[in-house]
Amino acid sequence: MLTHFIGGGPLAAGKSFPVHDPVTGAVVRHVHEADPEVVDRAVRAAREAARDWAALPVGERAGWMRRLAEGIERRFDDLVAAEIADTGKPLGQTRTLDIPRGIANFRAFADLAAQRPDDAFHLPGVLSYTVRRPLGVVAVIVPWNLPFLLMTWKLAPALVSGDTVVVKPSEHTPGSAAVFAEICAEAGLPPGVVNIIFGHGSAGRLLVEHPGVDAVTFTGSTATGSAIMRTVADRVKPISFELGGKNAALVFEDCDLDRAVEGTARSVFTNGGQVCLCTERVYVQRSIFEEFCGRLAQSAREVEPQPMISAEHRDKVLSFYALARSEGAKVLTGGGVPVFHDHRDSGYFVEPTVVSGLSEWSRFNREEIFGPVCHVAPFDSEAEAIDLANGSDYGLAATLWTTNLDRAHRVAQRLEAGLVWVNTWYLRDLRTPFGGVKLSGIGREGGTRSLDFYSEPTTITIKLEQSDA
Ligand code: 6OD
After folding, report:
1. Closest ligand 1 atom to Cα of 275
2. pTM for the full model?
3. What residues act catalytically?
4. pLDDT digit string, tens, across residues 301-335
5. Could you tell me the distance, in angstroms and rounded to a whole number, from the CA of residue 328 to the centre of ligand 1?
6. Residue of 276, 429, 450 to test ligand 1 pocket, by largest number of atoms within 8 Å of CB
């Protein structure tokens, strides 16, 4: 049974709930559910640790981040196993992306924070400068799609900035967070600096509304993000939200078609489409539309299906497949549930799917599905392509496929999205601002933007006496 991690040690309290392996549907573990008392204990532990942690020189906190990175390296195989047990991710992806990004996150933010200068401003006879203070106790609410990558993406900058944290992983994916709790204890991290509580959305709600929580960072659905905003509004807590997407890919006739097909397939089907950055709307210049559609559908047939995180989420994705049919879509491939004739048949799989023929105003083309599926539509001009991409309530990421350099810059700069990739997808530089516009989020994390969010400047202005000597 997984226990909470509070004040540097395990806490077995609260009812228990099961976690299912998405590959087979079998129960893989039981976990304690945080109740109001557990949440309160976690927040108190974080508050008690906050003063001493904030008082450490940043170089010492950076040293702790590097020790945590080493701890992750030591427990690499345990983290891989825990992540796969909860998510059913492929081994290759987990070993090359999910867990290594945890190591990279701690090292990148340690380096950045340790080297960051403070601001100073001069006027004649006036010196202003800033000192940055931690926010205090930060609630870190983590989704189930990239559990370890996203937990550490938020933890590392928060901790190195001097905040203490209470983390609430998704109820579907507590495993890698539980291993990380052990890593914190093994490293001798001061008790209360990192606290981890498990539970459903109700535990997350108790956490964000706790008066001892000073700020909230969240990656997940737009609906949950706006519910958190309402909860914290009265106390005006700082929030950083990376929310849903309905990301567009624009494929121009001057693209390298092999790269465009391969890259678009990756952007649609990676992690079973369960990444907020995945492409769900593909717009293709008419002269290459038929060929592109045929090749993308073929790629979809060659993709190894990955499980959806839960039976409920599988049913949601399947309901969109049914919706596409009822809205009059042409299904180019997929649209159902794969049959494996093995243990996976009791898991939560759906077929990688490509559809076309729907209006831009169909629910299918407007709502985030979060599965291995996209809609493909033709366009005739660059201006039309830009309008189509921007015609969404969301604005997280977009992808361009073109070999025309001028067009790449021209179009990229007109897209209403926080992130634009050209001839690639999900290529990350951890120093860059990361986040979305419109319903896709508030604020940016990444590089110094993360350090800005997890601390607040005080500006000190001194009037200098002018000596006439
Ligand atoms: O790669 C990252 O840093 C990041 N924040 C990815 C978010 C993916 C959302 O599903």
Report:
1. 10
2. 0.97
3. 242, 276
4. 999 999 999 999 999 999 999 999 999 999 999 99
5. 33
6. 276
